[in-house]
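Meet my pick.
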Amino acid sequence: MASGTSMAAPVISGVVALLKAMHRDWSPAAIRSAIVTTAWRTDPFGEQIFAEGSPRKLADPFDYGGGLVNPEKAAKPGLVYDLGLEDYALYMCSVGYNETSISQLVGKGTVCSNPKPSVLDFNLPSITIPNLKEEVTLTKTLTNVGPVESVYKVVIEPPLGVVVTVTPETLVFNSTTKRVSFKVRVSTKHKINTGYFFGSLTWSDSLHNVTIPLSVRTQLMQNYYDEN
C-alpha cells in the first residue's frame, strides 16, 4: 500500500467531496473537524502506529495529525468544531494583523479588542500549547450535527505531567441549543523545560466519540529550548 502526501491528498479530497455531497450546509471547517475527530489513532488492525524513519518510534499527533481517516464515522461525527467569518477575524487580531487589513479581507469594518484575543481560542479540532508556563484557559465551541436531543460527557487523557480540567463536564444539546462552549484549563507539574507530551480530549455519548489531540510543551525558562 502506497503512503505519503501524494497518496493522502487525493484520498482526503475524495472523502471531503463525499462529505460535502452528504452535508451541503457544512463549512470547510466542519468537514475538517468531522475528519479529525473521528479518525483512528491505531492502524486498521488495532495496533499502534509507528512513524517512518530511523530510529523507529511510536507515532504521535505531530506524525499522524488526528489519525487515520475513517470516512464512515466522519459522515456522522455527532459534533463539529466549526468556524465562521467572525472566528477568522478574531484569529487575525490575535496574531497581530492590523484592523485595516482585516476589514478589507472580511469585507466589513473590524475593531480588534484590547487586550487582543488569545490564539488558543481559535476553534480548531486540536489544542497545541507550545510554551506552557503559567496556567492557561482556552475556550472551544461545539456544534451539534447529530441527534437533536444529545448529551455528551468529557473524557480527558492528559499529557504526561500536565493537568487538564474541562468545564462544564457535560454538554446538553436540544432543539433550541445547537452550539455549546466549554473551557479548558491547562497547567503543568513539570519543574523544568520539556519537549512535547501528548494526550486527548473526547466528548462522548452513546453513539459518538468526538476526539481532539492535546499537545503541550512546558517552557519555564525562556533562554532554554528543548528540541524534542
The longest strand covers residues 179-188. The chain has a mean pLDDT of 92. The chain is about 25% helix and 30% strand. Residues 75 and 161 are 35 Å apart (CA to CA).
